[in-house]
Amino acid sequence: MMKVLIVASFNKGRFAPFILEQAAALQAADCEIVFFGLQGNGVRGYLKNLSALKQMISEYQPDVIHAHYGLSGLLANFQRKIPVVTTYHGSDINEKKVLRFSKLAMFFSAWNIFVSQKTLEIAKPSKKYTLLPCGIDLSDLQLTDKSEARRKMGLDFDKKYILFAGAFNNKVKNAPLAKESVTLLNDKSVELLELKGYSRDEVTLLMCAADTFLMTSLSEGSPQVIKEAMACGCPIVSTDVGDVRERMEGVEGCYVANTRNPEELAELLKKAMAFNGKTNGREKIIADGLDNKQVAERLMDIYRRIAGYFVRVGARKNGYWKVIR
User: Fold this and answer.
1) Confidence of residue 310 (pLDDT cuts 50, 70, 90)
2) Could you list the residue range(s) of the whole structural domain that residue 107 is in?
3) Which helix (H) or strand (E) holds 57?
4) What is the CATH number of the domain that holds 158?
């Protein structure tokens, strides 16, 4: 059985849901998973975890370390006994101050994973990389029809609901643009819902209950909420960020704005709200290989290749591993 140590931020007292869901899919694929949670901010904050991380590696003896985000990957590479796979999720590439550290992580990691073509183009790795967005879990709850979802969430059947892709106070999500776009609809029956403070199941039900899902973010990697809304068959309107255009290509009732003009977004919202029934977004997720079960299979292939072909050969400028052909 493949032994994998996952290294990721634990600053909020929990790991990100998409990391936990990916880990669960890996476990189902016959992979043994152990987590190491990083606490602290920036390089100095992360470095305080190094001693404990090395102790964990010594005790667990993993075959592979999978680090999520560039700083985690850089820290994981401060040891050279176990090969590191690093996944870059967007903010670690889009933010220039962090990108330089992510570049170092790319150089030392045995393999690198990028979640969108745009982040890949910014990072410009020369080798050792794969383009692989994070997957999502597909469930029967996502198939809930609109009326049943509204009943369960206590929503008004006579209103039109636009579900915003995050908290209003998250500056990256750009709530002012969303609010201005909704105001231009000049429809008192429309309500913009903030996606904040809900459980995972409640988020799914809101996506099933909403008339439209709206993302106006300034930047993204490969946003999980877009894929989750697609799995629920919810019509979507989004700014052109991350891999949104690629993910929604060919999905009826889903629109990507060419500008950040509230007028354009308002017109697209009208089209999306007029869509009748669930979209074919769920089918697109499966066709793109983004069910977590499908993603786990690809990750296992990477782990096996790294663990099987990389061996320790002594200190070198670019690390301790070489490929055995």
Assistant:
1) low
2) 2-135+291-323
3) helix 50-60
4) 3.40.50.2000
